User: Fold this.
Amino acid sequence: MQTFTYRPQGVCSRLFEISVEDDKVISFNAIGGCSGNLQGIGRLIAGMPVDEVISRMEGVRCGFKDTSCPDQLARALRALKAEQKEADEEAAPAEG
Assistant:
């Protein structure tokens, strides 16, 4: 299981902690923000494939903001996928 933290931008939440295993979200916790809503999101996405969470949460807006906690969660998961891809490429044996 991989657990990582992400600092969301442009929202009330100050920090996300996300655990992922086998490309599925295991847990999601947020510091700051709307506690009840964020706890509900965490329960709804537990066990959901990362790509499904991204597709459902990406683009959600909060009031007049260009982003929201769900959108920032999608961005966090995209960042995690990019890190994993980079690590996989570095670990792959060089051809030639």
